[in-house]
Amino acid sequence: MFIVNVEGAIRKDDKWFIIESNKKEEHASGLLSLVDGKVEIEGNSSNILEKTLKREISKEIGIKIKENLKYIHSASFVTDKGENVVNVIFLCEYESGDFFVKQPDEVEKIFLLAAEEILNNPQAPVFLKEYIKYAELVLF
Model's pTM, two decimal places? Predict the structure, then answer.
């Protein structure tokens, strides 16, 4: 059985929204990452990945993204607790709202960074750099 997780590579003015996750998070605590969230059980549901991502972005950093999400990449990983996760990454375009740490139990800080700043940042994990490279290839 897999947990399904979605992540958003959100672009605004040639920069990417990057969060520093809370140091108390179960997985990737204190690391730089994209905004993400687990898919919840909804019964019969259409566009569940997209709805999940929009909800998580609004819930964690308070912004709205445009409707035209674009699939970027998928991967799998195993958490420190041994849970298997399927991770689906989407390219998102910022639509509106002022960003702020809306869920401090999940997000420590929010940054708007150019791709070069992420790729050259020693605090950015390999997976984040990989996702940004993929996102840069499939820009709108």
Answer: 0.92
